[in-house]
Amino acid sequence: MRDFEQLVAEAELADVSGWGFSWLEGRATEERPPWGYAWLLSERLAKVSSALDLDTGGGEVLSEVPVLPARMVATEGWPANLQLARERLEPRGVEVVEAAPGGPLPIPDASFELVTSRHPVDPPWGEVARVLGPGGRYFAQHVGPESAFELTEFFLGPQPDHIRRRRHPELERAEAESAGLRIRDLRTARCRMEFYDVGAVVWTLRKCPWWVPGFTAERFREKLRAMDTHIREHGAFVAHSTRHLIEAERG
């Protein structure tokens, strides 16, 4: 393994745009949830004539779907991802629109049969209910509570209960039902993550800045040195992601 300074410097310069994780190949692994979201998404999109994908990132997931509806729209709020999504998806006839997470969607009421999302920033339940037609479905994979908290607490220390409970599936169930949606399916999974060098940690925390708010390699230099020592002694740093699959229907 290369030395600490080389690993950190390389990770600081690496591109983190889009929503792909190929840079981590051979350097980190994450177990996948058992339900196979991409396959289930493809199955549902093939059966509707209109769909909206929220927080599509760089369009990585949607671009792999073999059959898209006649009308397919995707939203993204981060400018770098927005450009990538347009490059990937517009050649397939997908309309990609800019929409800030948590804000109103620039879409008329009752526009879609299906709304989807893989890891939305902040599920906008009221907006989902508004843009779905009667009987329309929401189908998504969400990040769950305490996801990658081993990493978060390594750098920031113990987190309070209200932070730990954020994104809890039962809280999201209640929010969805309050918006007028009926939950049809809700499944949860806890998946093992392993980081095999400190550069993989630096790159991931740049890619997912909400795990350690304010992260920079300079600010957390000593913590990163401790992380490097841990990985060299134990072979990996182990954390766990949490996910839930949720399907809801508008009445």
From TrEMBL:
Gene3D superfamilies named among the record's database cross-references: Vaccinia Virus protein VP39
Methyltransferase type domain segment(s): 52-139
Pfam families the UniProt entry points to: Methyltransf_11 (PF08241)
Matching SUPFAM superfamilies: S-adenosyl-L-methionine-dependent methyltransferases
InterPro entries in alphabetical order: 23S_rRNA_MeTrnsfrase_RlmA, Methyltransf_11, SAM-dependent_MTases_sf
Single annotated GO MF: S-adenosylmethionine-dependent methyltransferase activity
GO biological process terms, semicolon-separated: methylation
Swiss-Prot/TrEMBL keywords: Methyltransferase, Transferase
UniProt keyword Hydrolase present: no
Protein's name according to its UniProt entry: Methyltransferase domain-containing protein
Organism classification: Bacteria, Bacillati, Actinomycetota, Actinomycetes, Micrococcales
